[in-house]
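User: C-alpha cells for this complex, please. No commentary.
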Amino acid sequence: MKKITSLFLLLSFQEVSFSQAPHVQSDSAMIASIYNEVMLNGECYENLRYLCKSIGHRLAGSESAQKAIDWGKSTLELSAADHVFLMPVEVPHWTRGTFEYGGYTLSGNPREVALTALGGSVGTDGKRITAEVVEVKTFDELKALGADEVKGKIVFFNKPLDATLINTGAAYGGGYPIRGQGPSEAAKLGAVACLIRSLTLADDNYPHTGATNYEEGVKRIPAAALSAVAARQLSQDLKNNPHLQFNLQLSCEAFERTMQANVIAEIRGTEFPNEYITVGGHLDSWDIGEGAHDDGTGIVQSIEMIRTLKAIGYKPKRTIRAVLFINEEFGNDGGETYARVCKETGLVHIGALESDGGGFTPVGFNCDISDTQYERVQSWLPLLEPYNLFRFRRGGSGVDIRPLKDDRIALFGLNVDGQRYFDYHHTNNDRFENVNKRELELGAAAMTALVYLMDSIGFN
Amino acid sequence: MKKITSLFLLLSFQEVSFSQAPHVQSDSAMIASIYNEVMLNGECYENLRYLCKSIGHRLAGSESAQKAIDWGKSTLELSAADHVFLMPVEVPHWTRGTFEYGGYTLSGNPREVALTALGGSVGTDGKRITAEVVEVKTFDELKALGADEVKGKIVFFNKPLDATLINTGAAYGGGYPIRGQGPSEAAKLGAVACLIRSLTLADDNYPHTGATNYEEGVKRIPAAALSAVAARQLSQDLKNNPHLQFNLQLSCEAFERTMQANVIAEIRGTEFPNEYITVGGHLDSWDIGEGAHDDGTGIVQSIEMIRTLKAIGYKPKRTIRAVLFINEEFGNDGGETYARVCKETGLVHIGALESDGGGFTPVGFNCDISDTQYERVQSWLPLLEPYNLFRFRRGGSGVDIRPLKDDRIALFGLNVDGQRYFDYHHTNNDRFENVNKRELELGAAAMTALVYLMDSIGFN
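Assistant:
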C-alpha cells in the first residue's frame, strides 16, 4: 500500500509538473521570440526617425498633425494589421505664432530671456506688455501678497521641482498645478501676465511649454514658461532691482475647433473576437521640438507591437488594437472620444496599455487593476524578470486609456526609467537624437510581451 | 489565566515590535537623508565636469593620469576624509601616438576608414602596411582558412555583438575574446595586421579601443578597431572587390613601465576600525574621449560617498575607504596591488563595492557573496526598493575589487541600466555631456546607502 501511495503521489506530481511546464515553457519561448523579433528586425526606430524628421512636431489641429495621421494609417497598413481605420475626433486649434519675446534691461544692458508661451495662452495683441515683476513660489504666497501688490504686474512663479523625489513624474506632478492654474490665480489679483519656471529637473536654457487651463469667468492673461537658467537669472536680477520692467510679447492665437482623427489598427481575435485589448500612445505633440519622447516613442512602439505579433505569426485569441490617439496634450479629446465610441458600440475591453513616459528602458508596468488581476499579473513576473522587468506598480496607467476605466478592464502603463524624461519634455530638445534605439525597442518588446500574456492567459 | 496570557502575548509582541521598528525606521531615515544630501547638495556632477573637461582622458602611465591622481587626492581631502594617501602602483606606459590611418581605394575612389589602434598594439614603424583583407567572423572560420589563405594579409574580424542579449555586458563579453586574442590568432597564420569590428551595439562611426593581449611567443602585429559603420562598409566593398588593398598606419609606441598610484581616502571606524569597507572605481581611462562613463562616474561617486557620509554626520562603525584605482584598463595593476598590500598588512575587509558600469540609473547591485550574506542583503531590499533598487543579482562585482576575494568579504558592483554603456565605451564620444546629473547622483546615493547598511548592520 505504501508503495502504491508513493507511486500515486509521484504520478500526481508528475502530472502537475507536465500540465504546467509546457505552458510556462511556451509562454517563455513566445516572449523570447517577441524580444528577438524586435531587437533584430525592429522597425520602430526608423519609424520614429521618419515621424520626427520628416513630419516633426504635430500639435493637434495643425497641418502636421494631419500629416502624422496619414502617416500613421499607412504605416499601420504596412504592419499587416487586419483592419486600419480612422475615428473622427474634434480637437482644438491653437497656434503659438511666429514671434515670442521676453526680456528686460538691467543697468543699461538688455537681457533677452529664454521663454515660450504656455499652450492655450492668449497673445499680447501685437503689442509688448511692459510691467514690473512680482516673484512668488506658491499660490499661498501669491494670495498673501493680495491685489495691492499684484495689480498691473507680471506674476512670476519660481519654484523648482522637488529633486529629492526619486520618481520624476511625482516631481512633475508637484509643479503641475502652477502651470495649469497659475495664470488664472494671478489674473484674479489683477496681474497683466504670468511667467512660470519651466517644469523641469534639468538646469539648462530650454523653456518647457505645456497646457495651461484658464478658469471660466477669469480674465485670460498671457502666460509663458522661462527656462531654468532664465528663471534663476531673473530671480537674481529682481533682488538687485525689484522694479525692473519686464517686456513680454506673444503672438498666440486660438481658432475654431476642427476635426482630426484617432488612427486604429486591429488584429482580429480567433477565439474571442469581441474581447478587445487596446495599446496606444498619442500622435499629437507640442509644437516645439519633434515630440520624440512625448510621445513619438509610444506611437512607434504601439505600431511595432502589431508588426511583431504578425511577424512571429501569432494568432491572438482576442482582438488586439493599436490606437494612435489624437490630442492628448490639450484636452484628451482622442482618449475621451475613443472611450465614448467604445461604450456606445458596446465594445468590451479586457485590457489596455499605454506608453507615454518616453522611450527609455522599461522597468515594469504601472497598473490600475483589481486585486484579482494584480494577483494574476504578479504570477507573470518570473516570465518578465529575465528582461529586466521588475515590477507591476499599482497606481496610474495613462491619460489616453483612463477614460476606458470600468469594472472589468485592466489598465497598464509602460513604466520606464524616467530620470531624463523631464529634461526633454515639451521642449525644442525633445528630438529623435535623444532616443536610444535599444531602450526604445526594449519598451516595444515589453509592451508586446504584456499583450501576449493578457491575450493568451487573460484575467478569467 | 487566559487574560494574563493575552496580556503577556501582547507585551511580547510589542517588545518585538519596539525592538525592530526603531531600527528599521532609523535605517530608512538614514537612507532618506543620504539620498536627500546627494540629490540636493551633490558635488559629483561638478567633480565629473572638472575631471572630464580640465583633465580629460588619462591613460595609466600618462601625464594626465598623474594630474588625475593629484586632483583625486586634493578632492578627497576637500571631502573631509580623515586620512588621504597614495599607494604606489607600477603601470605600463603605452602611447597611441599622433597618427592613425586606415583606408583603401575602390574603383579609383579613396575611402578613409574610421579606426583606432587597440590598446597595446604595436605600431607600423612609420610605414604604411598595404595588404589584401580576409574577412572572418570567428576563430573557427579563421582556422578553417589556414595559413595559405591568411599569410601576408590583414585579418578582419567582423562579428556584431548579439543584440538579442538584454544585458549589454553579456553581449560585450561575447565579443571580448576577439579583441583580446584576435591579433595573435591572426599572427599565428601569418597575417600582417588585424582589424576588428568595434565591440559596440550602436550603429555609428565611432571606433572603440580597448586592450588587446598579445600571446607570448607569437609575433606582435598591428591591430585596430573599425567603427560599426566602417566595418559594414568594408565588408560590402570586399564583396565587390575581394582583392582591395587596405592601407594601415599606426604610430603606437610602448615605453618602460612607470610608477603611479592608487588614491585612498578613509573615514576611521568608531567601533571596529580594523574592519574595512572599500568603495571604488578606476581613475585611469582610455586615451580617447574623456573617460566619462568609463570610469569617471565611478570615481566621482566614490568620492561623493565619503563626502555624503561626512556631510550627514554619520560616524561609521567600520573604516570606510574610497579607492581611486589606477590602471584598470590595461592590466588591473591598481586592483592587484591594492589586494596584495591589504593582504601583506593583514588588513581585513568585510565588504567592497565598485562602480564601473557607467553613470546610468542604478537598478540594484551585482554581488559575489556567500549564501548567508545573500540572505542578509535580500532582507535589505525593502529599504532600497523605494529608490527603485530592485535586486541583488548574483555573479560579478568589479575588476578592481575582485583580487580582494576571500572567504569573508562581500563583493558588490553597482548594477545600472547599461543599455547605452557600450555606445560610449572606449570611444571619443565617452564625454561629460553624455552623463545625466540625476542618473549619476542616484548611483552615488545607492552606493552610499549600501555602504551604510554594510557598516551599520554588517554580515555577522
